[in-house]
Design brief:
alpha/beta, UDP N-Acetylglucosamine Acyltransferase, domain 1, 7-stranded parallel sheet, globular
Length: 201
């Protein structure tokens, strides 16, 4: 399903395929031979963009989201596995984002890199070309340190320098209850803008 969001329609190459129950919304460009499979969502939120290069395969239930200040740009010949999540990140040509992987805003993944099953690339982190994030591990920092999920202290120490709350939600860090109140207010506004969307294809 193709959806116009805030006056911007997806641009879909004639050779691309979007499954009937997949959603492509807003200022999105799908390159030649892209495949957006069943239940996947490719969405450009207000002020954001998404650009998928030639032969990008977005598998079932995956999400690719572009946002203001953090476009999602996916290079050529990239596989985005089922249930994976790419949010406001840049993915190099020939990268592999496996099932359940998460790539956060401001992240950059180099050409030929792999983020394996349930791997994470944190906000503002840079994964070099040909690097691999093992199953369930976390890449954090610039350049990224690749740490096991059990290394909470190591991940947290690097993450504190990356401004997760400011990057993802655009708010200043504060008391958790106040943070969450502001985050949900902003998200209610942002996602409420979809009320006026129109199905265009």
């Amino acid at each position: 399903m193709l959806i116009e969001h805030q006056g911007r329609r997806p641009q879909v190459a004639a050779s691309a395929y979007v499954a009937p129950n997949a959603v492509v919304a807003g200022d999105v460009v799908l390159g030649e031979d892209c495949r957006i499979l069943f239940g996947a969502v490719v969405t450009a939120e207000a002020g954001g963009t998404v650009e998928l290069g030639e032969r990008v395969i977005v598998m079932e239930q995956a999400v690719v989201r572009g946002r203001a200040g953090h476009p999602a740009v996916v290079g050529r010949h990239v596989v985005v596995g089922p249930h994976a999540h790419i949010n406001g990140a840049v993915i190099g040509d020939g990268a592999f984002i496996a099932t359940g992987a998460s790539v956060f805003p401001g992240a950059r993944i180099g050409t030929g890199a792999e983020v394996r099953i349930n791997g994470v690339v944190h906000v503002n982190s840079v994964l070099p070309e040909e690097a691999t994030v093992p199953i369930g591990w976390v890449a954090v920092g610039d350049p990224a340190r690749i740490l096991p999920p059990s290394d909470h202290a190591g991940i947290s120490a690097v993450q504190q320098t990356l401004d997760f709350v400011g990057t993802v939600y655009g708010v200043q860090q504060g008391p958790p209850a106040e943070e969450l109140a502001e985050i949900t207010r902003r998200y209610a506004d942002l996602f409420g803008r979809h009320r006026d969307d129109r199905v265009v294809g």
